[in-house]
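Thread: "does anyone have the structure for this chain?"

Original post by V.I.:
We have the sequence but no experimental structure in hand. Need at least a predicted one for the grant figures.
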Amino acid sequence: MLQNIRDNSQGWIAKTIIGLIIVLLALTGFEAIFNSVGNQQTAAEVNGEEISLSELSQAVEMQRRQLAQQFGRDFDTSLIDDNLLRNAALSDLIDRRLLVQAARESDFALSQAALDQIILQTPEFQENGRFSPARFDQVIRQMGYGRLQFRQMLEEEMLIGQLQAAVAGSGFVTEQQVRDFVRLDKQTRDFALYRIKPDAGSATVTDEQVAAYYERNAQRFMTPEEVVIEYVELKKDSFFDQVDIGEEELKSRYQTEIANLAEQRRAAHILIESGGDEALSRIEALRQRLDKGEDFAALAREASEDTGSAADGGDLGFAGPGVYAPEFEAALFALKKGEVSEPVRTEFGWHLIKLLDSQDADVPSFAALKDKLERDLKAEKVEQRFVEAARELENLAFEAADLQQPAQELGLQVRTSEPFGREGGSSGVTANRQVIQQAFGADLLESGANSQALELDAETVIVMRVKEHRQPQRRSLEQVAGEIRATLRGEAAAEAARQQGEALLASLREGQTPAAQERSWQVFEAATRSLEGVEPQVLQALFRMPRPEQAPRFAGVALANGDYVLLRLTGVSEPAQVVDANEVRMYQRFLASRAGQEDFAAYRTRLQRESDIERF
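Reply from O.Q.:
Generated one for you, tokens below.
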């Protein structure tokens, strides 16, 4: 074969191809060719920053999952236009990247310490009121994030929030605008409505109409795309019975444990948060007052800007090494009991530190710690074996054509899932976002290969493959004829109700009011825009009607459920001049917030217009 290539490379065909390549390079340049290769992994560029295809895929799957959750399990996500979903997800990513860039250019920032506090205080990451690392990992894994990815996402969200608050917070409205809005908002209307309900039982639908509807709406009658997967599951708890801990190991760990016990020191401090010259002058002035005999705790209550400890006289409680900032810790452990440090600067500002008390480490006995040490050692060994087994499972699966051999070598069982679509299954493995994304990814669908090891949670790893891929199939006319017939009857009945309503509306506007209809009108007096029991669409139409003059005004509204509603407006009332200052302020805040949101939307539009955005 190689010889054939060498022989043919001397022919006129090869020379022609080489000539075309030279012309291509001359016209487009090497850079264009290399860029085309590089762009294979790039979905878009925003002012020079790339949005990767992996980011886009994750965003698309997230949107698909949200749609499934929003519309329920019966919603067939295979009916979604993939290009439309992809474009929407990419637009969201571009918009987000623009806002993050704008926030950074405006010098908005969030410290890592502040980010830590947000995570620690998030209720979804807590168990029994305390932050749980395991719960944190579980929640973000279900969202499709690793720890670093989640922190980056959260930081970007906070930056965007700061930017939005700055722009939207500048919105304002005048007092006259507020009063005009209040006058319209509190307006009431006297009206009556007459409802014509569709009669689906009286509508006639022929077999020909059913067949024609079936042909016109072929996509509506497709079965969902589904897959069936095989998977091998590795559980961490299965390794606990395989691990034994010897006495010597326990004693060695005990010595390590007590060696780490350290003296605990009880500190109090006064904090001035700014790091500038003014803050230094303030902290030095406080130090001079202490030198003159003022009480440290009283001064902390007066001047400390650490709101968490100021009320307690600056008392921070007992803590060992590694808790405070390095500069703070060095100063604290250099003090004797009752001493106050010179001003100490950390990333939080300037401190005066006082050592209130210290206590030696309380060293527990080996017997007291034995059970804990055994649990800890066992957990470490189980974790190690679990990680090694997961790595071995992934390697075996990579080399095997199916999952039988990896399962046999590791003593595991090959399981088969129920069929599930892109929205996922109801529970277990098929409800996991990673599994859904992998199952419907091109690699597994097209090649039939085994997946990489997927960590579903801190206790579970699986390797999977697609056993069966069920493409959407058109259901037969016999299967859906009843559904179509009901739809057509509903449409025909709604159309008949609309025609009847419009004819009656024309008569009413000409001054004719049939006696039968007069008895059926439902009358409302002093109705507000939030009137309960009347559809919002009807209320919107009502409050858009012009004021009646000598005679009532009439309008008609066709509702989505097929009803046709006739409206008769007889009166409009507005409140007297609004004088309640509290009410005016409430409306002013609402309208200013709405104006701010509009300003922020305009700001985003300007960013999009003025930025260099390229989609690939």
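V.I.: this helps a lot. The first strand starts at residue 42 and ends at 46.
O.Q.: and Residues 175-181+579-615 form one domain.
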